[in-house]
């Protein structure tokens, strides 16, 4: 399960942040959880939004999977380019851990 304490290590494993970002103080995590565990991450030069289905909540996992698929479709189909410009980009979806990372 993601927490503020282990989120940096997870993002490092995906190559989304640089190893020095945390040590240099260029890494700020704000919890934004509601239905899912959710975190806003600020780092230079960009920020991320990371969501994880709460453990044991099959309904939340299903919704998160669908949401990730919508983002993927928006950003891969040319006919949806106008909508894609107004939505975050899906950077990663970890089906095994039920974690979605957005730009």
Strand and helix layout:
Layout: H1 7-14, H2 20-23, E1 28-31, E2 37-42, E3 47-52, H3 58-74, H4 81-84, E4 90-94, E5 99-102
Give the key terms:
single chain; 103 residues; alpha+beta
Category from helices, strands and their pairing: alpha+beta
The neighbouring-strand order within the major sheet is: 1-2-3-5-4
Strand residue percentage: 15-25%
Quantity of strands, as a count: 5
- Label the overall shape: globular
Radius of gyration: 14 Å
Instruction: Please count the helical segments.
Output: 4
SSE order, as H and E?
HHEEEHHEE
Question: What is the terminal-to-terminal distance?
Answer: 20 Å
**Main sheet?**
5 strands, antiparallel
Quaternary organisation of the protein chains = single chain
Helix content: 25-40%
Low-confidence parts: none
Account of the protein in words:
- By secondary structure, the protein is α+β, with helices and mostly antiparallel strands.
- Helix content is 32%, strand content 24%.
- The chain is built from four helices and five strands; from the N terminus they run H-H-E-E-E-H-H-E-E.
- The protein has a five-stranded antiparallel β-sheet, with helices on one face.
- The longest helix is centred in the middle third of the chain and has 17 residues, at 58-74.
- It is globular, with a radius of gyration of 14 Å.
- The model has no long low-confidence stretch (mean pLDDT 93).
């Amino acid at each position: 399960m993601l927490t503020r304490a282990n989120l940096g290590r997870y993002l490092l494993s995906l190559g989304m942040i640089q190893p020095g970002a945390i040590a240099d103080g260029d890494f700020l995590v704000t919890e934004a959880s509601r239905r899912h565990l959710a975190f806003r991450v600020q780092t230079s030069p960009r920020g991320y939004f990371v969501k994880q289905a709460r453990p044991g909540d099959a309904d939340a996992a299903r919704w998160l999977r669908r949401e990730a698929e919508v983002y993927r479709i928006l950003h891969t189909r040319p006919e949806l380019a106008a909508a894609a410009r107004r939505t975050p980009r899906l950077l990663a979806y970890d089906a095994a851990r039920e974690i979605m990372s957005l730009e």
